[in-house]
Amino acid sequence: MIKIAVCDDEQHFVTQIKNILEEYGKTNQTEISVSEFYDGVMLLDRYDCSYDIIFLDIKMPHIDGVKVAEKIRVRDPNVTIIFLTSLFGRAVDGYRVRASNFLIKPVSEKKLTKEIDRWIETNREKKQECLLVENMTGRFMIPISSLRYIETADRNLLLHSEEKSIICYKKLKELKERLEPFGFGQSHKSYLVNFSYIDTISGNAIILVTKEEIPLSRAMKKEFMARLARYMGGKL
Predict the structure, then answer these.
(1) How many distinct structural domains can be found in the chain?
(2) Nearest 5°: phi and psi at 38?
């Protein structure tokens, strides 16, 4: 299924876009789910990091589309954002939030469906596995491949990714079960490590390619090294 959000303050325009997308799905035997939003505040309040594509108007009351996109990018680095606009001068803003394209209103059916074709061709097969993280500041989609390691911190977890570190309220055991199939191992009662970021192991210390040092406990060393060997063997 392709999950799409359409956000524009003109409700008739949102309905028009939704009808075109749903007809595209029927014609091409592609399951498409379309959610309607009529301003940026509504989209941000209900955004759950599960969308593949957002068609987003730039000029809206309360908060414009570029600012909405900036806030969404903090939570979700992977979603495809396509701006809907009658303004030609906002391209620089679009690059800042990694917008996929700009569609000039009124949007033709041909241009709209071309964007869906392009998304299917370039994104569906390479869609990354992500971890949904919730905390007091919101919900975030973290690409699993970007996670270097996870550590316990004051009864919570601290997830260290390539882009940022983020607090998570889940239990380490829960994330261990979720992440082990993706090449993670528990090196210590308080640490999970992504094998792909390991540079060397020296005694009871794991040195990552980032030069960060992670403890490797004696109690967990045998199992950790066995899992690492299987992981490396699968990469050969």
Answers:
(1) 2
(2) -110, 0
Question: Which tokens in the block code for residue 49?
Answer: 């990091």
Taking the C-alpha atoms of residue 231 and residue 98, their distance in angstroms, rounded to an integer, is 33
Distances from the Cα of 108 to the Cαs of 17, 38, 78, in angstroms? 9, 20, 26
Cα angle 162-163-165, degrees, rounded to a multiple of 5: 90
Read off the CATH number of the domain in which 142 is found: 2.40.50.1020
Q: How far apart are CA 92 and CA 75, in angstroms?
A: 21
Asked if 148 contacts 161 with a C-beta cutoff of 8 angstroms, the reply is yes
Per-residue pLDDT tens digits of the chain, which is 236 residues long: 899 999 999 999 999 999 999 999 999 988 899 999 999 999 999 998 889 999 999 999 999 999 999 999 888 888 999 999 876 655 556 667 888 888 888 899 999 999 999 988 877 655 668 888 989 988 888 889 889 999 999 889 999 998 789 999 999 999 999 999 999 999 999 999 999 999 999 999 999 999 999 999 999 999 999 999 888 876 54
Cα separation of 52 and 140, whole Å?
A: 14
Q: Are strands 2-7 and 32-37 parallel, antiparallel or unpaired?
A: parallel
Final residue of a structural domain among 94, 123, 152: 123
Domain extent at residue 146: 130-235
Please report how the helices 109-123 and 11-27 are oriented relative to each other, as an axis angle in degrees rounded to 10: 60
Q: State which of 106, 123, 140 marks the end of a domain.
A: 123
Distance CA 131, CA 175 (A): 9
Check which CATH number belongs to the domain holding 7 and give it: 3.40.50.2300
